[in-house]
Specification:
- It contains 19 helices and 3 strands.
- With about 400 residues, it is mainly α.
- It folds into 3 domains: about 45 residues; about 90 residues, Receptor-associated Protein (Up-down Bundle), CATH 1.20.81.30; about 250 residues, Receptor-associated Protein, CATH 1.20.81.30.
- It has a 3-stranded antiparallel β-sheet with strand order 2-1-3, with helices on one face.
- Strand 1 and strand 2 form a beta hairpin.
- The longest helix has about 60 residues.
């Protein structure tokens, strides 16, 4: 039987809210009338209201919504009215439903941060913390604007990164497909042609090796494919464990070409989140907990958690960060100087901006180098296959002339 939420008023005019199980909305109205309640609003309670689990909302859409909410509040529109306006104008189903539920909880007396916390999967822990700090400190509009700007900056960096590596990934896939097609479907057709030369022992070693590899790939193609898929599945399951995540993040930091890029992106996220939270009045311990998760890297997150313990004991932040070999020395020194001069918030934001600019230059250079390298590797593989096929032909033609 479905559940319905209702808002009603009693005989004294007091607002009453709750839920009822009923077959139809008409039955809910009848029940309320029997309790001498006058219904104001009755609707079916959604699944996300009962469980608190919702789908994801695109970060760019969420940033736009938070920015619009800040603009409405800054223009003097009451919070409930602003939430209702945003709910009506959004076309995203999940966001529209979540905004309606947040509106209802605020109407029942909850703060905006308390209402958002229940749907933290949509808004994120950083947004909830900054909204709470903004609500308590009287700068809610500024906090919402900063969250929106931060989300847009992160999405812009992510889209630029994905756009940069899209073409190299495409080249890698095309190269793999070409090599597999040549080995599995093209090379076996020459096996019978070179059978006589193989019996005489005149077949070049390179050709013999490629024909044997092709024959193995053809005969055991299903087994090889199944083994690769099974291995990929086990690897995927293992990297979802805590130990697997740590090893995966450690490998990412130690990659010859991509390691500095992954490290700088993670450190930049940490500095930007921490600086933004501190600037908006969130306590430093809570800010460190949130920014540790924001790095997206278990190795760096563990170093930040150790730093949090030191800060709790009254020590400085830079010391334990410097103990981690993956934190850049320059960043640690800048944080140490900023702590001494009490300018930690702006310095952290400056570090994030500098690291993001440097990372983008490194990524651009890596992509520029990766494209010709992949093309060269692909051309070399095809050249080896062609040479392996031409060598026996040239040898046969030389024998015929003699």
């Amino acid at each position: 039987m479905p559940e319905f939420t209702y808002v009603a008023r009693d005989a004294q005019g007091q607002k009453v809210a709750g839920t009822l199980e009923a077959a139809t909305q008409r039955e809910v109205l009848s029940t309320l009338a029997g309790r001498e309640l006058f219904p104001v609003h009755v609707e079916t309670q959604s699944a996300i209201d009962r469980t608190g689990h919702v789908g994801r909302v695109p970060p760019q859409l969420l940033a736009t919504t938070l920015s619009q909410l800040a603009d409405l509040l800054r223009s003097g529109v009451p919070l409930l009215r602003a939430l209702e306006v945003l709910r009506k104008q959004t076309s995203h189903r999940t966001l529209r439903e979540v905004l309606g539920l947040v509106h209802r909880q605020v109407e029942e007396g909850a703060t905006l941060a308390e209402a958002m916390r229940r749907y933290q999967r949509v808004f994120g822990e950083m947004t909830v913390s900054m909204v709470r700090a903004g609500g308590e400190g009287g700068f809610l509009e500024e906090a919402l604007t900063r969250v929106a700007e931060f989300t847009e900056a992160q999405e812009d960096l992510k889209s630029r990164t994905l756009g940069a590596i899209a073409y190299p990934c495409f080249l890698a896939v095309v190269g793999a497909v070409v090599v597999i097609v040549l080995l599995v479907f093209f090379m076996p057709k020459f096996d019978t042609l070179f059978e006589t030369m193989r019996e005489r022992g005149e077949l070049p070693v390179l050709t013999e090796v490629l024909l044997a590899t092709s024959d193995l790939a053809w005969r055991w193609s299903l087994g090889i494919l199944g083994g690769l898929l099974l291995g990929a599945w086990f690897l995927w399951q293992w990297q979802r464990t805590e130990q697997g995540r740590v090893w995966r993040d450690l490998i990412k930091l130690r990659l010859p070409l991509g390691g500095p890029i992954f490290r700088n992106l993670a450190v930049a996220r940490f500095c930007r989140v921490l600086g933004t939270l501190l600037h908006n009045g969130v306590p430093i311990l809570r800010s460190l907990e949130i920014s540790a998760d924001a790095t997206g890297n278990r190795v760096l997150s563990e170093a930040i958690q150790n730093a949090t313990e030191n800060v709790t004991a009254g020590a400085a932040l830079a010391g334990p960060l410097g103990a981690c070999p993956h934190f850049p020395d320059a960043v640690v020194e800048m944080i140490a100087v900023a702590e001494e001069s009490n300018t930690l918030e702006p310095v952290l934001l400056d570090i994030a901006n500098s690291l993001e600019r440097r990372t983008w230059r490194q990524l651009d250079l890596a992509v520029r180098l990766l494209e010709p390298i992949m093309l060269l590797v692909l051309a070399s593989i095809v050249l080896v296959l062609v040479i392996a096929l031409l060598l026996p032909v040239l040898k046969m033609s030389t024998t015929i002339r003699m």
